[in-house]
Design a protein that fits this description.
It is built from 15 helices and 15 strands. The chain is α/β, with parallel strands linked by helices and 439 residues long.
Length: 439
């Protein structure tokens, strides 16, 4: 019996032990779903506090049900560790570590590299290794494979299988979670693809779609988010134009949405947030330079989106000017530091850039976010005000809405605010709009 047959048999009997490296927004939900499907699961993370919280049954990710995690830990189905020697005990391991950009806006794959090196030291035969972290096309074959083969002495395709399956996590999405979101799998060799896909099918309800190579799967992930980056860049540029033309882009978009084919609505905002959309196109543009190719359309959309926080502050200053006030010295309350509504995730949030620019221009800035009482930036913690009411709102010269949380009482805010700059069309259901200006 060959490796493929042995692994298929173990998958069928649920005798696979799963390892998940990186217990963050991607890794913890994946680990929980693997364990819920009946596979013994070990989570690996270099942060002791995360390991302790998991082993105590304490959840810290919004898309995970607290009771599910506690039950899985209590019955021994799932545990966490910082000791990578336990990699020797797993049959399937998913790498779900961060892939940020460095200070030069170039890919930082150091977390992927160090995790792979730790895995290689303890890799056993008949193991499936899958990278889920978003990265540039070629990472799996050009970087992961050599590290695993050199560190373990094993041969890819003969002693272990290696593939890429891009994470698809949308924090706060009430419909699509890890369990029911379709999955793409591309591996080195047809057998590897079939086995890794079979493992995901045993756990997930969504379709598992097989592609011919890891590079296809890596590029597919980049395409998903570059598509959104470009379209958001388009509406952000149109927002600037429509403001000059005294046209409401928000009303334009609502009208365009009535077309039942050939149009998908995207909306302007103060910039891009989250781990994927603001970062993924940089991975592709960086890799493209290796081939002497410049992705001009992508780069132009990135330029537009990157300048939106500055444009937001420029518009905020214009609003204040109409009230015969200067931005310098004005009291400004920013509503929302999460990168999207109704979540506690502020990764790459444009609101943080807006706050920084407002402060740099001399504004006296506070923030309020019911989901995020404080945030860390450049090694420093910033704490928001703990509540808003009529008296609090009326004390500020300007309210800037950067995240449209449902928890805000928009009627109360409009009634008591001196001036409002709404970058998210959050006040769309408020009839009295005399003190509201839209992005």
């Amino acid at each position: 019996m060959g490796m493929k047959e042995r692994l298929m048999e173990k998958i069928k009997k649920h005798e696979i032990t799963v390892g998940v490296v990186g217990l963050g927004y991607v890794g913890l939900p994946l680990a929980v779903e693997k364990a819920k499907a009946g596979f013994k699961t070990i989570g690996f993370d270099v942060q002791p506090e995360k390991v302790k919280m998991v082993n105590d049954g304490h959840n810290y990710i919004g898309d995970v049900v607290n009771e599910d995690l506690k039950e899985l830990v209590d019955n021994g189905q799932m545990r966490a560790t910082s000791d990578f020697s336990f990699v020797k005990d797993v049959d399937f391991i998913a790498i779900c570590v961060p892939t940020p950009l460095d200070k030069h806006q170039e890919p930082d794959v150091s977390y992927v590299r160090s995790s792979t090196e730790s895995i290689a030291e303890h890799l056993s035969k008949d193991t499936m290794v899958v990278l889920e972290s978003t990265t540039y096309p070629g990472t799996t074959e050009e970087m992961i494979r050599p590290i695993l083969e050199k560190g373990s002495g094993l041969i890819c395709g003969e002693d272990f299988y290696l593939g890429f399956s891009p994470e698809r996590v949308d924090p706060g999405n009430l419909i699509y979670k890890t369990k029911n979101t379709p999955k793409v799998v591309g591996a080195i060799g047809k057998d590897a693809t079939e086995v890794i896909a079979a493992m995901y099918r045993e756990v997930l309800e969504g379709e598992v779609y097989e592609v011919s190579s890891p590079a296809i799967a890596e590029m597919e992930k980049i395409l998903e988010n570059t598509y959104r980056n470009i379209n958001i860049g388009l509406v952000n540029e149109l927002a600037m134009l429509c403001n000059k033309m005294n046209i409401s882009l928000w009303e334009v978009i609502e009208a365009a949405k009535t077309k039942p084919y050939g149009f998908q609505a995207f909306y302007p905002g103060p910039g891009l947030g989250g781990h994927c959309i603001p970062l993924d196109p940089y991975y592709l543009t960086w890799k493209a330079r290796e081939y002497g190719f410049h992705t001009s359309m992508i780069e132009n959309s990135m330029i537009i989106n990157d300048q939106m926080p500055e444009y937001t502050v420029d518009r905020a200053a214009e609003v204040l000017n109409r009230y015969k006030k200067s931005l310098n010295g004005s009291k400004v309350l920013v509503l929302g530091v999460a990168y999207k509504n109704n979540i506690d995730d502020y990764r790459e949030s444009p609101a943080l850039n807006v706050i920084d620019i407002l402060k740099r221009r001399g504004a006296d800035v506070d923030f309020y976010d019911p989901w995020i009482p404080k945030y860390k930036r450049n090694g420093e913690w910033f704490t928001g005000i703990d509540h808003i009411d009529a008296d609090v709102v009326s004390a500020y010269d300007l309210i800037v809405v950067t995240t449209a949380h449902d928890a805000y009482d928009y009627q109360m805010i409009q009634k008591n605010a001196q001036a409002i700059f709404d970058t998210r069309n959050a006040f769309k259901n408020v009839e009295d709009r005399d003190n509201i200006e839209l992005l």
